[in-house]
Each structure stands twice: as structure tokens, then as C-alpha cells.
Amino acid sequence: MRLNYKSISGIIGMGYFVIGILIILYNKFFIDLEPKWARILGILFIVYGGFRFYRAIKYIRENG
Fold this sequence. Notes:
Helix content: over 70%
Structural class: mainly alpha
Protein name: C4-dicarboxylate ABC transporter
Keywords: Membrane, Transmembrane, Transmembrane helix
Oligomer: single chain
Shape: elongated
Transmembrane segments: 12-31, 37-54
Number of helices: 2
Distance between the termini: 11 Å
Organism: Apibacter adventoris
């Protein structure tokens, strides 16, 4: 598999997804967070990561 921009974008999207899960589990993101704010930030990271991953996969399927 050749790594192009969209492939790397998909990998980065998965990274954002994982970071979101870790923020929710550990209630930390460089500083200690209250559980409410950790969940909000974690969900934002998960949604953004899923969006990036979806766009990368869609582009790869359409353009070979």
C-alpha cells in the first residue's frame, strides 16, 4: 500500500479516535479534567477522528 495524503489522514483519524477514548478513560489531557469536561472533550475527539477516517476511506474507495 502506498502512503499518500488520504492514507495518512485515515491513520491520523484513528489516532484522534483513540485519544478521545483515552481522555474519557483517564480524565486527563495534559491537565487533570473534571469527568464532565473529559467526556465532552473525548467525544469531540472521537467524532472528529471518525469524520477524518470516514472521509479518507470514502476518498480512497472512489479514487482507487
